[in-house]
Amino acid sequence: MPKDYANRKIKPGTGKRKNPFTTRQRERQVRTLRSPTTGVFSLTSFSAGLVLGMAATILSIYVMEITKPIKPANDLPKSIDQGLPHFDFYNLLPNAKVLPDTEPYATEKPDHDKEKEYFLQAASFRFQRDADELRASLILVGLNASTTEISVNEKLWYRVIVGPFKTKRETQRAITQLRERNIPAILLYRTSPAG
Fold first, then answer.
1. The pTM is what?
2. Exposure string (b/e) for 112-148, b if CB count within 10 Å is 16 or more?
């Protein structure tokens, strides 16, 4: 008589473990995971919603077509010109003048009476030693830096100023050098008489 090795009982202490797929607990887990109502219900609901949505859309288009008013034949033009289209822009464009608005693109007109000196404020500190440290590091980079004292709300602040620069191009180069060192700069300028 043949032996059933798949369902045989193992003696305790032999070190062999039961097959986890044959235990009753595992069978219950598999049954709950494969419950037919979970997957079928979702698929059924989705399919029903899709079919009903499509039916409602088709029905609404059909109702709109049916209820569209029909124009009477007397409203239609009696003679429809089947000739070439007539365009008026051939006559309108040669006679029209288009004047662009150049103000947004206008360059700054040079003021010959006064020249501008540009400065950059690299930072503002409460303590002079912090301002001097930044000024020294900017001088080592090759920028002309200085510190100035200013009183704001009865408190003394120390500003690190880079410059003066004669042109905007020089100022932009200095701004680029400051940005490479993660220092945001504020552009300042003053007008001075030429001479």
1. 0.41
2. eeeebebbbbbbbbeeeeebeebbeebeeeebebebe
